[in-house]
Amino acid sequence: MDGSFPIEDIAPIAILMDELRSEDVQLRLNAIHSVPTIALALGADRAREELIPFLQDSVDDEDEVLLALAEELGRNFEEYIGGKEYAHLILGPLENLSAVEETLVREKAAESITKVATVLSQQQIEQYYIPLLKRLSQGEWFTSRTSSAALYPAVYAKVSPAIQDELRKGFTSLGSDDTPMVRRAAAKWLGPLLTHFSQPHIISDGLPIYRKLQQDEQDSVRLLTVEDLIVIAKRLSPAEVKEQLLRQIKQSIGDKGWRVRYMAANHFNELSEALGVELVREELIGQYVQLLKDNEAEVRSAAATQIPGFSKLLDKEVILARIVPCVRDLSQDSSQHVRAALANQISGLAPLLGKEATIEHLLPLFLHLLKDDFPEVRLNIISKLETVNTVIGIELLSESLLPAIVELAEDKSWRVRQAIIEYIPLLSNQLGKPFFDEQLGNLCMSWLGDTVYSIREAATVNLKKLTDVFGVEWAKGSIVPKVMGMGSHPNYLFRMTTVQAITTISPSLNLEIIRSDVIGPLLELAKDPIPNIRFNVAKALEVMAVAFVDAPEGRAFIRDWIKPTLERQQADTDADVRYFASRALQKTIPNDT
């Protein structure tokens, strides 16, 4: 350091050093986050000469501090040290971080190294990056070798053919490493690296690495090769795939480790598209059926999510002969998660099968799943009915679906009734207003008179959601008259439901409807002989006041209608009514009203 520097210029690096030696982890963390600021204060020259060497020696710290350092160095840090021509200097500290024990730090350091690589020239890459890559790849500790796998794809396409040869050999060594963690990293990064290989090198170098990893004794390595397989298949012709990959494809699909089969099932559509229609029809149908019938529920669930996508590649007759029987079995699967995955996808078969086959084969399965004990299964079926509707038409769907909905709506278990209520807005949104008014309107109103309070409460929330779906004008004609009509019912429970329904839906209505259709009957109920109804009216008025207080006409409405009623209720004989009336006045009535 030049002795002619003023003391204030020396301060930033000294402060950083002091803070990084602090016993307080948070202070050290803050110091790392301030590194860009310190670099700016030092200037590019001193940042290169003093800060970078200091950071290179700062790897003996808590993991979260090292993680923060790895992250900061990947955030365009070259701008603080003189620009792209000096970006290779950042590789030094990151190389050290790539070899630490903590996985998260290593991964972040490797990610930052690849970011730095994007701004390096070919000369910098060959002079600085490649030697670093070789050191990490041949490191004594598995940690550095594991990190090195992520660094190959970023520069492969940017270097000379001679260095590319070395990189392929280096990566081949990683794929044969003694440590499973290194082989796992090689399996993870093989796919991205292969995208940069030339066609001949895919076959001469890529395939042998893939085959070695695909035969690995560790299933945690084998499962990562499924994505590598897809990358290779996309680069080969169908004839080459059949010759070079078919055996490995079948091995992965039938692997003894369920996690490998799960990965194969989860990526089956991608794999099928990479192979092409002809090869899929020749070779993969039986493999896919095998996954749909797998012993493990997780594998069956993953395979079920691929049903429509895979079926698009097949003829209708094949879907009916091979896929639909599996779908039928899955609809009665012992695992609720499998049934839920199926319910989410089964409607996608309808456009492929057409109207008649859907009615014959799929409709009975929809109805069966609609009565499933598991709520997610029912919801998944209802949420995708629009696809079926476009195939078979609303009339047929309502003929078959409506009896099932009515049956559920009248189920002896109130929880089943509650569940179907919650799906009604979703169903109505898909099937439209005319269908709802004709088929479901009366059903929804009947729930307001249910013997179970939770059902009545769910029914009022349902009405609010329907108002949001169909609009206030629809609510004015279809909901409000029926709800207000219940207000004069001899049974107090019906009158109570009216008050609670108004409390719930009034924020979704406009002031005109409240003034013309709602407030009159509601204020009559403020005089009801049952105290519970009277104090619930006070609650309803409080909600209305909150909903309309912001508009001038709303404040006038509050002054003329709501405030006088609440003031009268403050003198009520019942303590609860007085309490809720006072609360409503205090909370929601502005002083100027």
Automatic annotation (TrEMBL):
InterPro entries (UniProt xref): 2AA_helical (IPR055231), ARM-like (IPR011989), ARM-type_fold (IPR016024), HEAT_type_2 (IPR021133), PP2A/SF3B1-like_HEAT (IPR054573), PP2A_Regulatory_Subunit_A (IPR051023)
Domain Phosphatase 2A Regulatory Subunit A helical: 365-512
Keywords: Repeat
Entries under SUPFAM superfamilies matching the protein: ARM repeat
Molecular-function GO terms, alphabetical: protein phosphatase regulator activity
GO annotation, cellular component aspect: cytosol; nucleus; protein phosphatase type 2A complex
Record's keyword annotation contains Glycoprotein: no
Keyword Repeat: yes
HEAT repeat ranges, renumbered to this chain: 90-128, 206-244, 245-283, 284-322, 323-361, 362-400, 401-439
Entry similarity comment: Belongs to the phosphatase 2A regulatory subunit A family.
Name of the protein in question: TOG domain-containing protein
Organism: Psilocybe cyanescens
